Amino acid sequence: MGAIDSFLKTITEAIRPDQRIGIAEWSERHRILPESSPEPGQWRNSRTPYLVGIMDALSGQSSSVTRYAHDDARLFDNIGIVIVGLKKGHQLGGSALGENFIGRCITSAAGNILAVFATKDDAEKWEMDRFEPMRHSTRELRKRVKDANRKGSDNTKLRKRFPGGLLNLVSATRAGRLKSTTVRYVLLEEVDEYELNVDGQGNPIDLAINRTSNFGRRAKIFANSTPTIKRRSQIDRLFERGDQRRYFVHCPECGRPQFFDWHAGMKWTPGDPSTVVYHCQALGCGIGSPEHAWKTRGYEGAYWMPTAAGDGKTASFHLSALYAPLGWRPWAELAADYELALTDPEKMIAFVNNALAECYEDKSAEMKWETIKRRAEAYRLRTIPIGCLVLTASVDTQNDRLEVEVSGWGRGLRNWTIDHVVLRGDPSTPEPWAALDRLLDAPITNSFGVPMRIELCAIDSGGSRTQDVYDYCRLRRHRGVFAVKGARDKHKPIIGRPTDQDVTIRGKTIKNGVQLWPVGTDTAKDRIFGTLAADEEREVTERRMHFSTDLEDEYFEQLTAEAYNVSKDRWDKLRKRNEALDLKVYNFACAYHPRLRLNALQDADWAALEVVVEPRVRDLFAASSDTAQEVTAEVVDETQPEAVQTSGIGEAAARLGNLLTALRDTHAGEAPVATVEPQRAEQPQSSAWVPRRDNWLRR
What we know:
This protein is α/β, with parallel strands linked by helices. The chain is 32% helix and 19% strand. The protein contains 23 helices and 27 strands. An eight-stranded mixed β-sheet has the order 23-24-22-21-16-17-18-25, with helices on both faces. Strand 21, helix 16 (466-474) and strand 22 form a beta-alpha-beta unit. Helix 12 runs antiparallel to helix 13, helix 17 packs across helix 19 and helix 18 (553-559) packs across helix 19. It is globular. The relative contact order is 0.08.
């Protein structure tokens, strides 16, 4: 065949209308399961009859195995279906259905295809273990997709060309790959493994689906996954968005249709799972029949039926392992697994997810915002409760604002939310940063008349405002302002070793430039939520985290906007906005910062702070309070040009000493002035403001 003939043949195949052949028919006609398959050979729909209705919906064609109602045997119309979601258990053929979807798209209705996997490794594994064996064993695919290892095939492991389209295999961890091309078909494999927000640009599922918008209802998206945790499972959200189809089988005794419900109908003699039977849930029957009876007589005339209205374009299916063909997942094995799971929470999670295809609901892992709000205390924002001895601040950057939280700290890392402020304005302009300067510079006077300043301020440099944050922090390092970013790896310390970010024209690091401090966000969240949960059982005076009644509901909703996903070992967002939680995390980073190290303070250290911050005398500067004046004088001697400023709490104490000096001037009729001493090199000091302890300087 000449070049012209080859070109014309390619064009003809590309513009030829789609064959009117559904995925189920294509599978029986063309799909050959490879030798590596548990049951190699020609695909048989009769082996997994429950997959036929799903393939009909994904084909957009009428289905004889789906009904509008139990007594309505008309063909079910799938013409408007664009998205198909399958919430599935293990070993049911769901992944093979996805392969059939891809095969039919390549051979019978060509168009660009996007296949999305949780990671790049998963994509490569699918290509090697799934796609390549299918291509090799299925003649129709071999004709259209060349071997990636063949010279001149123009194919790679993650990109497959075929007449009329291109198959791209991408990971859900890179937004650019998800948005790069317009596609007609999308395969979303194991969506509960995906990141919830990729590169700060949104959910990868939404990014992928948006690539099909030009095709309207001719586009087809297939998402499948084993579910994970309730309210955090992406496939569960998709299932609830759709029409929630269930697979109805007939009772072998009375013939009435029903779907399998493990907790309602599955019974066996305790300790003997081999006796397991499923009891009919129809009123007036209740007879228990063994697995083989349900999956032979019961499967005759079985059908899918929607149980919800849905959004009109999403067909969602629930398929548990109870429906697996005879020999694949015996009910006796499932019963044995369940008995073992009763005493092992980890096994129970796996059973609920993998066998029942349901979300595990870990009520203890989620904190309700209403519960936290009920514990709010009657102190006003921007006031200092008794016991609050040190102030820190944190800043979260958004495109149109800065959000700031001031936290107070006391013995045993007791924490108070002192203030929560939103500074409106584009962070690329000076205005919001000038407002932040004013906020950080303004002292807050406690009930003892002692003005307290913010000792450290952590500013989030993640997102799109990194350079603005660096520019602000660079000039305020001496004031305790520093840039932070969540650590990429899990289970890192609450605050880690900083890295220098500024470089010279030669690319060398500037050691005294801006520093970036990594924050172990998951570790901090563990600490925060653990404390919140423990506070529920504590008396008011013993609680470790305190909140003002002035805080709005939105603050508490943001504070509890995430929950720990035990099955994935990660924190998942339950709602879009979580700034209050991020701010609390960064305030914990301040508390653990080496300039404060509040977590390392001992009782004597806190007692020394109390002497300065909460002096227990009527008039600190009266003639009867000579001892207190001596303590103040020892904090800082302004007449000495070489006055020593200690690091960590020592510096904080020196600042408090300056404020006490200002307060003394006020008593003398002068206006108070809060000064910030420049940081100097550490030197030995024989007379410190508190008894000399290694804790201040060397821990």
